[in-house]
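Lecture notes, unit on binding sites. The following record was shown on slide 14. It pairs a sequence with adenosine monophosphate.
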Amino acid sequence: MPEPGTGVADLRVLLVGSGGREHAMADALSKSPLLDQLLIAPGNAGTAELGENVPVAIGDVPGIVALAQGREVDLVIVGPEAPLADGVADDLHSAGIPVFGPTRSAARIESSKNWAKELMARHAIPTAGFAAFRTIEDSVSYINALPEGSVVVKADGLAAGKGVIIAGTRKEANEAVMKMIGDQLFGDAGSTVVIEECMEGPEVSVFAFVDGATVSNEVSACDYKRAHDGDSGPNTGGMGAYTPPEFWTPELAATIRREILEPVAAGMVAEGADFTGILYAGLMLTESGPRVIEFNCRFGDPEAQVVLARLETDLLEIALATANGELDDVDVHWNDQAAVCVVMASGGYPGSYQTGVPITGLSSTPDGVQVYHAGTSTADDGTVITAGGRVLDVVANGADIAKARGTAYDTVSAINFEGAEYRTDIATRAVGSPTV
Ligand code: AMP
Ligand code: GLY
């Protein structure tokens, strides 16, 4: 941690979150000459090395605001979506504290799939055809009028990435609706369902800093959501990621900017729900061009870990400018390096797993590798122990994906904790191997 008073701008920053994404963000922020002091609420064993962890929970919006006021922070940077959906940015604005992250109204781009779909429809942003319903009867009559085939059923609200069912038949789609509306499988989040046309094609996550209608240079990454090799097993928070995608071209980037990123930012301004922060577009590259699967109002995890490895511009400068409505003045530059992240998880994740397991091999990591902590804590004797499902994110840089991938997996082999699980096929498709 830099000595207080050595920074050029002496900023005191509060970062909200506790995952690998926030450790990577803390790492980038701690390199900034603008930083004086970094607080992380609540943080993990990795962020404790870079700043001061403060035990305020991610869901405790009044606690976050009180912490920011009490410690007189100059900027709050919010990692996860939940406090944004709960209005932490609005409350910080009311307290006169600059915040990097959207208001509750703008966070609806993630927190309400129905609102996001209607926004896309109003602004002609390419996405899957859809309809939203609150009752089983209306859903079923809509589904039964569709041609037989795949259809996607989604809970409208936040469901921790689990609220999506890809139904192969009308019967399966009807069953999904019964579970969501009838059995409240996702609680209140599923009291409205969104029924979508099923799209096909490679998926990509695209990120840009956005302040009102200003959209920074974008960057892209691919993530792996399934637990096991070959894209098998249950969905997880993300088991790995790489950047840049092998299919990424300047032409594709220009199309995505023109047809998706710029219109959505301008559309939100036009509707009085200006977006401030990092916009995450989850896209499918269909035969008829890139189409939106979903938007998120924050960095992806673990995509942040790989894209931040390519960020040449000071993250704190960008975050401050975005919060102050001055993003236009900053030239956001992503370098051409590759980066690969392999997530090491607790045995059993995303089901039940043990915590408190000691981790070894963390002390020496090769050049070009960062080991970000996702679910860790420090035992009383100073040992780093597991404290969550996703435990560590091993991130390697390289001139190309093959080099970065090799270094990441060499490092993974040198780290141990009982029951550790990880995928062995992250980024293989980008180096020409015939796999997912
Ligand atoms: P979401 O939570 O909206 O990101 O959806 C989770 C996953 O479901 C996505 O990463 C896609 O693989 C898939 N998915 C969601 N919507 C669609 C769609 N309309 N067509 C095909 N696949 C979809
Ligand atoms: N990696 C997917 C997400 O952050 O939602």
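Take-home: Residues 161, 223, 238, 296, 300-301, 303 surround glycine (ligand 2) (CB under 6 Å).
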